[in-house]
Specification:
The complex is a heterodimer of chains A (about 450) and B (about 170). Chain A is mostly helical. Chain A contains 16 helices and no strands. In chain B, strands 2-3-1-4 form a 4-stranded antiparallel sheet. Chain B is α+β, with helices and mostly antiparallel strands. Chain B is about 45% helix and about 15% strand. Classes of the chains: A mainly alpha (about 450), B alpha+beta (about 170). The interface between A and B is large, with 70 and 68 residues.
């Protein structure tokens, strides 16, 4: 009805509904493979390294980091912005592409959104440990207290950030879980062992596929997508305001919100590509996450990468055009100063290398796309490092100019956040359907009247 | 009281849509239809009214917006006006980010909560299933038997036009 027979099917292999169920449920029902175990053990080991580093830091104080009185924000905030940015691709796929009726999103939205939730968890750790006394984190919440009540400052972007990140995490989690309920019911009805049946029954909320429920479910899904779309744009805008509302040259810039949002989607899609290229191979989902999916994501990377490159250019232009000597100095210092190596890594990874994706052959080559996606991940981490550290390390008073160098504790903390990310993602891939069965079934050509589709296709497509 | 039902099991979207339309036009009331995925147009075919959850979402979002605005004004201008860089106490633009976030948070959580409540979905609920294949690849049309004349043989020819796989009578114990 909705598909032209001339259009290439989204899912290859001419699947029937039962085949989709079997294919998606197979890795969950078969035991964990050696590959899974080895990846899991490595991730947990790296996670433990991070836990040790953070424990040491909390017990000793943030003097264990390389921060000093000139550079007060560095590795931790870089990592925070990096991880929040990674999360944005998941919401873009699950909400924005849903509103734009991009049906190909159904094969990747579950895993991309799981990635979002996990990345936001990783991000949340950094402001928390940055407090130095993380056990007092609840002071950021506006609750009546015995100090006055002394309230939080609602004019501070740092407070907005707390509201933005916690709302983003909550709404993403709820959106993801609502999408999961029908699949949990499928697993419940397939479960052989008693324990599995009990667990899946608990998680499937008594779902039975009733059309009355589906109707409400679809409405809620649409509403959540409509709410999550401005939400995701607001989150990185507010993150950027942490910088933009200050008076530091290099941060004090009105272009920051759109520039950060584009950068977030850019880095997020790079991470989705990295994960999907591995996952489709390991879990044997090549017919679901096809080369066409990879290519479409590459196009989004290309567009957002273009916006990022344009933003770099505009920032440079404005530094010159504003005739503000401090602003000019910061940008000359970025490109030619002691951190020039970081700046040029950023430009090479984010501006130069992604241009290869203009070539169709390279967009459709898994190895090339994988390598490019790794470069973008690195480049976008460096972008945040460059923005934060090079704007701070040479401030208004040349006698306080210093260099910032991360300590081994900071590097171990960053590694640990990757450990946490991969540990949770591997657990997700092991216990939760990687592909949204209920949604993929809806985009198959199976059981649709193809004759009817030809006559209608010109109107609806 | 035991409730008898007649169920028809179909194997694809096209058949179930046709069967639902024909069953309704022949004057039978459809109890419900169970499908493995959201079949578009099925709610219209069954004659379900559009959901009112959109209004619920709007009201919750409005509640969130008002909560955020009122709280921030009360805190910032009435309870403890704090001079931050000489900015006005009632600075609405500065309150918008938090107001927006709470609008989304209240709207999202509220509509999900009401949807679960309305559909009677909650963790650990025992599912009411007419056919085990519904969450896999079967589409099941259910008619409640309300009088003595009604039985499988009445609807079977109707559904056979739409390649029904199985027609049977199910009695749900009270």
């Amino acid at each position: 009805m909705r598909f032209s027979i001339l259009r290439k099917p989204l899912i290859h292999g001419d699947k029937s509904l039962a085949q989709v169920t079997n294919d998606v449920a197979r890795p969950l029902e078969a035991g964990p493979t050696t590959l899974w175990w080895s990846a899991f053990i490595i991730s947990v080991a790296v996670l433990i390294l991070g836990v040790v580093a953070v424990t040491y830091e909390i017990m000793t104080g943030i003097g264990t980091w390389g921060l000093n009185k000139t550079v007060g924000w560095a590795f931790d905030i870089t990592n925070f912005v990096f991880w929040v940015g990674i999360g944005h691709a998941g919401t873009l796929i699950s909400a924005i592409l849903f509103l734009f009726r991009q049906r190909w999103r159904t094969s990747i939205n579950r895993s991309a959104e799981a990635m979002t939730i996990i990345a936001v968890m990783c991000a949340g750790i950094f402001p928390l440990i940055h407090l130095g006394r993380p056990w007092l984190f609840f002071w950021i919440a506006p609750y009546p207290n015995l100090r006055g009540s002394l309230w939080v400052n609602f004019r501070s972007p740092l407070l907005w950030d707390f509201f933005a990140i916690s709302t983003y995490f909550t709404i993403s989690l709820v959106f993801w879980y609502i999408g999961l309920i029908p699949d949990m019911a499928t697993l419940r009805d397939r479960a052989r062992s008693k324990i599995k049946k009990v667990v899946y029954r608990l998680m499937s909320f008594g779902w039975n596929g009733s059309t009355r429920t589906w109707q409400r479910y679809e409405v809620v899904y649409l509403l959540l997508a409509a709410l999550a779309t401005p939400l995701v744009l607001s989150v990185h805008s507010i993150v950027s305001m942490d910088f933009a509302t200050s008076v530091i040259p290099g941060w004090h810039s009105t272009i920051f919100p759109p520039y950060f949002v584009a950068g977030a989607v850019f880095s997020g899609f790079a991470m989705v590509l990295t994960l999907m290229i591995i996952a489709r191979k390991v879990l044997r989902y090549e017919e679901y996450i096809t080369i066409d999916h990879i290519e479409k994501m590459c196009k989004i990377v290309l567009v957002t990468g273009g916006i990022v490159a344009l933003s770099y250019g505009i920032e440079m232009f404005m530094a010159w055009y504003s005739v503000n000597e401090y602003e000019r100095f910061v940008f000359i210092n970025r490109a030619l100063g002691p951190y020039a190596w970081a700046f040029w890594i950023m430009v090479a990874c984010n501006v130069a290398i992604p241009q290869l994706l203009w070539i169709k052959k390279l967009r459709r080559s898994l190895v090339t796309v994988f390598i490019i996606s790794i470069f973008i991940n690195i480049g976008m981490w460096f972008e945040r490092f460059v923005i934060i550290v090079t704007s701070l390390h040479r401030d208004f008073l040349p006698s306080s100019w210093v260099m910032y160098k991360p300590t081994i504790i900071e590097i171990a903390t960053l590694a640990g956040s990757f450990g946490l990310f991969f540990t949770l993602f591997l657990l997700f891939a092991r216990f939760i359907p990687f592909i949204a069965m209920g949604e993929v079934k809806g985009v198959l050509n199976y059981g649709r009247n193809t004759k009817k589709s030809v006559s209608l296709s010109t109107k609806t497509d | 009281m035991d409730r008898p039902f007649i169920i028809g099991v179909f194997t694809n979207e096209h058949d179930i849509l046709g069967a639902v339309e024909e069953t309704r036009s022949s004057g039978y009331d459809i109890y419900d239809v169970y499908t493995p995925y959201a079949v578009h147009g099925l709610d219209e075919a069954m004659g379900l009214k559009p959901s009112r959850l959109t209004y619920v979402c709007f009201l919750f979002a409005l509640l969130g917006l008002l909560t955020a605005i009122i709280t921030q004004f009360w805190i910032g201008s009435i309870d403890w006006p704090l001079n931050v860089g000489g900015k006005p106490f009632n600075s609405l633009p500065a309150y918008l980010p938090v107001a927006f976030e709470l609008t989304v948070l209240f709207g999202g959580l509220g509509v999900v909560f009401v949807m679960l409540l309305r559909s009677k979905l909650y963790p650990g609920k025992k599912e009411r299933s007419f056919h085990p294949g519904v969450t896999d690849d079967r589409f099941v049309l259910v008619i409640e038997v309300t009088d003595a004349v009604m039985d499988e043989e009445v609807v079977r020819p109707l559904w056979e036009n739409h390649s029904v796989e199985e027609v049977k009578r199910i009695v749900e114990m009270a």
